[in-house]
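Render Phosphatidic acid phosphatase type 2/haloperoxidase domain-containing protein in 3D.
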Amino acid sequence: TKWAVSAAVFAVLVMRRDLAAAWCVLGSILASFLNKALKYVINEQRPPSARKADPGMPSSHANSLAFLGVYTALALARESPPPLGPGSVAAAAILALSLFLTWLRVRLGYHTVPQVAVGYGLGAATAATWHQLGVQHALESLATRPEQRMALYGCTALAVVLFAARNVMAWVKERHVCGGTDEAGLSGAEAALKLKAA
């Protein structure tokens, strides 16, 4: 899910190349970093059946899915008058997909229901706040000030690079711990158990 969603977001950013897309992507990455920080502060373990050893509360996948789903739904609904304009139907479909993919995290044993509920709630609240801030204040100001526009594009590009680097490093570490043996000669499963116990 993480790689597919990241690729889709990056594709939209590259295809649209506008303020609204940059604002949304920057907000989603900031929400992701906030969620990751909370995950390590709360430090709640995942379910015993989970194949990952990092903390599970709140779910990062649920957070990202909620942010992107809610933000996109709000943007589409704003462009298409209710109750059943094309934007409203697309918004409902995107929200349904984000909820389904979030439910899969529980179904596959990666998270508990409270972990995805908190992650989704945090992502949805952050998306609504970020969307409102953009619509009411930031986007109009950015459209009239080229230096601020360039600052937004620069911040978004930096955030994308940092986000990608963090996820690639986490993926490499996960493959190293779970795929073979670690430096101490432990198998992937033994190392994961050792990490969970620590």
